[in-house]
Amino acid sequence: MNEADVDFACTICSKCCRDLRLPLTVDEAVDWLSRGGSVQLLCEAVPWLADPPPENLWAAHKLRRSFAGRSGDLPVRVVVILAATFTGPCPNLQPDNRCGIYEERPLVCRIYPAEINPFVEFDSRNKLCPPDAWATGSPALFRGGRLVDARTVELIERSREADANEAPVKAELCRVLGIDRAAIANEGFAVHSPNGGVLLEALRSVRAQASKDGPSARPSGASGEWRLVSNRRASVDALAAVGAVSELAGDHAHASFEYLGLSDPTA
Ligand code: SF4
Ligand code: SF4
Predict the structure, then answer these.
(1) Distance between CA atoms of 204 and 39, rounded to whole angstroms?
(2) Would you give the DSSP letter of residue 123?
(3) Which among 39, 34, 43 is positioned nearest to 194, based on CA atoms?
(4) Domain of life of the organism in this record (predicted)?
(5) Are the beta carbons of 40 and 85 closer than 8 angstroms?
(6) Is 152 a pocket residue for ligand 2 (Cβ < 6 Å)?
C-alpha cells in the first residue's frame, strides 16, 4: 500500500477494543470510573535543566503536556497519562462488536487508526485493522502523507489541547493522591493504580477546583518532589550523581506502583 495515500473505512472488527491502556482526558476518566471501569496513572519524567529552543519540537511537545517538579537537586518535567485499563474486551464492547458508549467514547477511540502523537509516523502495518479496512475507494484518510479527514484532524487537535490544559490538574491530582514516583521518560512508566472510588473523588475535586480558579490560577512553578525510577542500574546511578532522588524498579517489595519498562534493562 502507498502510505502517502490511504483510504480507510472501519469494518467494526473490534480488534482495537481489547487488552488496552487507553489514554483519557480528565472528563473521560471521570466518566469511565463512574461507569465502574478501571483507570491508572502512568507517570514519566524528563530531566529539565532549562527550556530548550522552540525549534526543538520534541521538547516543546513534552513541555506543553507536562508540569514542573523536582527530584532532589534536579529540575524535571512530569507527564501523567490517565489510562482506562482492561485485559480482554473493553467493558463497553457489545456482543455485536459495537461500542456500547459510541456517542460518548473517548477521543482516542475516535481518532484510531490515525496517530495522536506527532512523533509517531502513521504506518498501516502497525494497525490492527484488517486488510479490507484499507480498501481503495473508502473515504480518504491520508493524501500525499497528510491527514485529510477533517473530523480526525479536529479530534487530534482537541486531544492535544486537553493534554496541555490538563497538566496542572494532573499535578494537583498527584499531590492529592500522594503519587511521587515517575519513570525516566522513554525508558518506561511508573503505573499507579489507586482505588477507583478514591481516584474518582480526587478527580472530581481537582477538576472542580481548577474550573473555579480558572486558567490564570494554574500553577506554573515547581510542583512536588519526585522519585525517579528505572530498571537500569546505570540510569539510577547517573541520576544520583547529579543529585536526583532515584531508585531501581523492584527494589521495594511493597511498592505502591508497577514499573512498565519499554526497554531491555541490560541493553
Ligand atoms: S470505549 Fe468503545 S470504541 Fe473505545 S475501546 Fe471500548 S468498546 Fe472500543
Ligand atoms: S481495528 Fe480498525 S477496522 Fe477494526 S474496529 Fe478498530 S478501527 Fe475498525
Answers:
(1) 14
(2) -
(3) 39
(4) Bacteria
(5) yes
(6) no
For residue 217, pLDDT over 90 is answered with no
As to burial, measured by CB atoms within 10 angstroms (0-12 exposed, 13-18 middle, 19+ buried), residue 171 is buried
Q: What pLDDT shows up at residue 223?
A: 65
Q: CA 166, 193, 95 angle in degrees (round to 5)?
A: 90
Q: Hey, which of 93, 98, 103, 104 would you mutate to test ligand 1's pocket, going by the most ligand atoms within 8 Å of its Cβ? A: 93
Residue closest via CA to ligand 1's atom 4 equals: 109
93 lines ligand 1 (CB under 6 A): yes
Pairing of strands 181-184, 39-47: parallel
Q: Are strands 74-89 and 39-47 parallel, antiparallel or unpaired?
A: antiparallel
**Ligand 2 center to residue 34 CA distance, Å?**
26
16 pocket-lining for ligand 2 (C-beta < 6 Å): yes
- Write out the three cell numbers for 101: 458508549
